[in-house]
Amino acid sequence: MRLIARWMARSSPSWSAVVGAVGLSMLAAAASITLLGGSGLLVGKAAQGGGLASLGGLLVLIEVVAFLRAPLRFKERLVAHRVALDSMVTWRSWLFDVVAARVPGSLSGLASGDLLDRSIEDIDALQDLYVRLALPVLNTVVTGAMGIAIISVFTPHTGLALALGLIAGCTVTLMVATAAAAATRSSEGARSDVAVKSTDLLLGMTDLTMAGTALGALDAVEAAERVRARSSRRLADLRAAGTAAVALVSGATLLAALLIAAAACHRGALTPAETAGAVLVVVASLEPLLGLMAAAIRAPEVALSAQRLESLEAAPLATHEPSNPAPWPDGPQDLLIHDLWAPATPGGPAVIQGLSLSIPVGHRVAILGASGAGKSTLCRVLLRFLDPTSGGVSIGDSSLESMAGDEVRRHVTLLDQHPMLFGGSLRDALRLGAPDATDDELLEVLRRCQLTALTGVGVNGSPLDLMIGEDGATLSGGQQRRVGLARALLRRPDVLLLDEPTAGLSALQGSEILATCLDAARESTVILVTHDVDHAAGFDQILWLEEGRLTPLSKERIAQLRR
Amino acid sequence: MPRTRRSTPGAPSAPDGPSVDRRLIADVGAARTALILSVGLGVLTTACVLAQAILLAHLLGWAMERRADPVPTGLIIAFAVALGARAIIGGVGEALMARSATSVTTTLRRSILEAAVSGGPAWLAPHKTGALVTTVTRGLRSLEPYFSRYLPAAVVAALAPPVALIALLVTDPASALIALGLVIVVPFAMIRLGRRAASESDRQWRRLASLSGRTLELLRGLPTLRSLGRVDRGRAELQAAGEAVAESVDATLTTALASGAALEFIAGVGVGLVAMLAGLRLLSGSMTVVPALAVILITPEVFLPLRRAGAEFHASTEGRSAATAAYELIDHTPPQPTVERSEGIPSVFPIEMRTVSVTFPGAGSPALAPMDLTIAAGDHLVLTGASGSGKSTLLHLLSGFLVPTDGTLSFAGHDSSLLEISERRRGISLVPQRPHVFAATLRENLLLGRIFDDDAVLDAIEIVGLSHFADPMTGGLERPLSEAGASMSAGERQRLALARVLLEDRPLVLLDEPTAHLDVETIEGLRKRLAPWLARRTVIEAGHRDGLLGPAANLVTIPDVAVTS
Q1: How far apart are CA B373 and CA B540, in angstroms?
Q2: In chain A, which residues have their Cβ closer than 8 Å to the Cβ of B292?
Q3: Residue range B88-116, pLDDT digits in tens
């Protein structure tokens, strides 16, 4: 409940929309009540033998209301959908900000994993917050209150019966919602277990078939299915009980109201017309209860989505921005790493353990190491995506930690094995790194990165107009890497970080790319991180990263590694 | 070749009409049960609803009497029974339909997975794994509302209006005529509006889905955006895209919601007209109170079920496209090769390939150009060749995941097409290029459902150099390897697969680029520790001579297929 309120507050819907929705809901409720109640009144009065004149007004009213009710409900739904859509925009931005503050580094598993897919689905599920949760509640409250008020004018006892019935209905609904919360959670758990096991079976088919145990894995899925079936049955039974209970409460309330109204009529306290009207108003007032139950059943699922999204926010931040950020020092500066200790993710065990290194400005350093030695962690620290636990990195006399992350990244640029290019034209992809670059500058950097082969293929004859497809899909792997390099160079980095920039390319392509990097980034300090010793040729320093520390590699050792 | 159609809840593909529904009903017992149940429950519910309306009219008639008649106990009991029955039938129906829905998805999932298991990796190959996984998990999930919500609503929509009309006809023919006249309007309004609404709402869904896709892309690219200092631009783009979709959806939403509103409108007009006519006839004395009230209470029941079925329309399209996707998978079962002998052959050697080539259906050039090769027991071969020349294809051929398109492949003199595949595999181990890491413990990941003792497992881990994974501090063999091995590097995954193979004692070992992601140091260590084990086996390694077999192995160069692309 509090969770849902928090998300509504987070989306901050405009007051005019909320007021509009409530107003429309009231009008629509009034129309429903008038249509049924008025019909009862009409029949009652007509039966008493009133003249046509006395009924004329009522007849017109009923017809007008009959025409108006549907458009009112329609408009009400439209407003709720609108609020939902607007909220989605806000929630998506929220998710974007939460993730932006945490990748890479804190939510490193998230960036590539299914978790991100699920987060998007969870945001989509929140759409129901307004349309399928808030609206039924609003309808029940407004219609109920209006019905009670109208009936109580004529027969307070009947009004009381209706009020009690509605309270009972809401209580039952609330109980079902509470019970459904636990059942939904266990059912969700069982469901995701089936999903994980099925996925494993499909993705691991080769391994399982060779092991001769694919049938066993199928049995495991079946077992998980049985658990899921059991837990969904529990949930279904709960829903069924809720639906039945609401129907019973509504029926009992109607019957009670009818008997009370009948007694009043027989006493003479109510006219027959008022009796019929009152009873039919009770019918109209009870109608939204079923929708409320549907909301109660849906609510736990939406809450679960909301909870999962909030758990993202609980992941610790990988960096802390200084309150008084220092600027990047002017002029060419050496880079110093002093007794650096850093975990792979915040709070984890240290992967970098007391690493020290001094890189004179303009030098090229190659850092070699086995997979898992901490190369990527080192890159993250250098990009200020991750705070060290102790020691640090400084540029001249200023430590990286004293600067804002964006300031550091204005001067330190990364080219990794998968430069994300997004869609659009080649110009868009390049300008992502340098929004103010002119076409001439872009063409110049293309030439430096040996991408001129692309010349003349764009729609307007300029290579910059070339559409590169979703995430550069129309480019070859080597071309993608070169575009990534061009984008990095446009930022005129003081430090260019290369994190396995040749992974996934053939040996020839790889060495060509590296040669281009070194040639094109002549003004920058270059740090290459790789597992392949062949790529270290032409570097000023070649270092070996092991157990979190760097050791220089001797010529003999390099020859031995290269063999 | 059948392709998996991507079926996410967000993007229903065009359903193939009613054929999928019919097929579901015909094939799946639970679906049949669900249909029969919904018809039975629909009849009962309709009966209860109408009985309740008529009884309420009678009760109201009594209540409106000026003189205190004796309390009509019979009527009250009948009314209570009707509403009790309706509540119970509603509840039981919901519970039963939910059970059927669960059974249907269980059945379909089982069928797909059984097809996958019997077809093996060859069955999986033509499908996009991502789409496949989506169909099996989320896709099938969207089939549940089809049975639990849409089907019952649709059945009641077909049953209740005619029954309600008959009830009206019996009570008051004039009202029945009004309702009938309006009901006839419904299909016309619905066909025009409904079709438009369906396509509009479909388009709206697709737009929302594309927005989700864009959001995902931006989120995935966040590390890049942060490196480039362009997080703000990403956010702005997300916001603009969201607002643009909200704008455009606003227009289509109107149509989408309009079909429901039109039905409500017709229902409202119906009740209004019926009430007016009843009032006028009461005045003239040509009608009495009870029938007048009854028609007012029955008339909405002619229209309401249609409205409810319309509201569940989305469940039907999503469910149908999920079922279509599921059937495309189930139908695509590769023909099983004929098997001559099912008992094992003593040895798979010698393996002889005579002008064996493999061409995938629909591909222009062969995946493996015709080649001859003889593999004798104890051979150590390194397969080289340009990427795409068919190294993996050859290994898959030997593992029985592929069959030769041309030429003959024989094991110990028996033609491969006549040998039971699982029997043949019992003599073959394979380290695939991209081994899968299961969402299970380290032990389970190594055993893969087989039985080996912990000592053997620990030995295997040590040989491949993954001992640090089994550190007792992190749970030892019980250590869970996170979902899809997100925390493991490609090199570690391959070494994990090597450990799996080490546990098996099979004479032929196939290694598909086992060192592609390893550094020289690690490769050397591995080669040294594996040497005694490899020496006792026949090994074929795809890759190069700096791999696990080392320079002593014989080189086999795969003929170039002259790949055009």
Answers
A1: 12
A2: 43, 46-47
A3: 999 998 898 888 889 999 999 999 999 88
**pLDDT at residue B87 tops 90:** yes
Q: Looking at residue B562, what DSSP letter applies?
A: -
d(CA A89, CA A81): 13
DSSP string, B253-284: HHHHHHHHHHHHHHHHHHHHHHHHHHHHHHHH
Inform me whether the C-beta atom of residue B85 falls under 8 Å from chain A C-beta atoms.
no
- CA–CA separation, A22 and A139 (whole Å): 9
Q: How far apart are CA B434 and CA B493, in angstroms?
A: 8
Taking residue B453's Cβ as centre, other Cβ atoms within 10 Å add up to 8
Nearest CA in chain A to B244: A89
Q: Is B486 within 8 Å of chain A by CB?
A: yes
The rounded mean pLDDT for chain B is: 82
**pLDDT computed for residue A383 by the predictor:** 92
Contacts of A85 in chain B (CB under 8 A): 245-246, 249-250
pLDDT reading at A88 higher than 70: yes
Closest CA to B257 of A331, A181, A359, A78: A78
Residues B360 and A155: their CA atoms lie apart, in Å, by: 81
The pLDDT of A503-529, averaged and rounded, is: 82
Q: Determine contact, residues B555/B525, Cβ cutoff 8 Å.
A: no
Q: Residue B429 corresponds to which tokens in the numbers above?
A: 């181990």
Per residue in B487-527, pLDDT (tens digit) is: 677 788 889 999 999 998 899 999 998 887 777 778 889 99
Residue B56 with chain A: CB contacts under 8 Å:
254, 258, 279, 283
Q: How far is A468 from chain B (nearest CA, A)?
A: 15
User: How many CB atoms neighbour CB B69 within 10 A?
Assistant: 11
Residue A142 near residue A29, CB atoms below 8 Å: yes
Partner A contacted by B438 (CB < 8 A): yes
Cross-strand pairs, A398: A395
Q: Which position has the higher pLDDT, A139 or B339?
A: A139
Write phi, then psi, for A422 (nearest 5 degrees).
60, -170
Q: What is the pTM of this model?
A: 0.79
Mean pLDDT, residues A253-269 taken together: 93
Residue B334 has pLDDT above 80, yes or no: no
Q: In chain A, what residues touch B109 (CB-CB under 8 Å)?
A: 194, 198, 221, 225
Q: How far apart are CA A35 and CA A281, in angstroms?
A: 9
Kindly list the distances between the CA atom of residue A318 and the CA atoms of A105, A380, B545, in Å, as whole numbers in the listed order: 6, 10, 43
Nearest by CB: A222 against B110, B121, B216? B110
Distance CA B293, CA A45 (A): 12
Is residue B249 within 8 A of residue A85, CB to CB? The reply is: yes
Q: Is B396 exposed, middle or buried (0-12, 13-18, 19+ CB in 10 A)?
A: buried
Tokens in use for A532? 């392949």
DSSP state of B419: B
Closest Cα of chain B to A389: distance in Å? Answer: 21
B474 contact A CB<8A: no
Q: Which residues of A touch B473 (CB under 8 A)?
A: none
Q: How does residue B13 score in pLDDT terms, banded at 50, 70 and 90?
A: very low
Question: Is the pLDDT reported for residue B341 higher than 80?
Answer: no
- Measured N-to-C along each axis, helices A52-100 and B173-220 cross at an angle, to the nearest 10 degrees, of 10
Does B392 have pLDDT greater than 50? yes
Contact flag A419-B224 (C-beta cutoff 8 Å)? yes
- Tell me which residue in A39, A217, A244 faces B91 most closely, judged by beta carbons: A244
B265 pLDDT exceeds 60? yes
For residue A10, the one-letter residue type is: R
Q: Is A309:A123 a contact under the CB 8 Å cutoff?
A: yes
CB-CB under 8 Å, A43 with B425: no
Taking an 8 Å cut-off on Cβ atoms, the answer to whether B231 and A100 are in contact is yes
Place of tokens 């086996």: B537
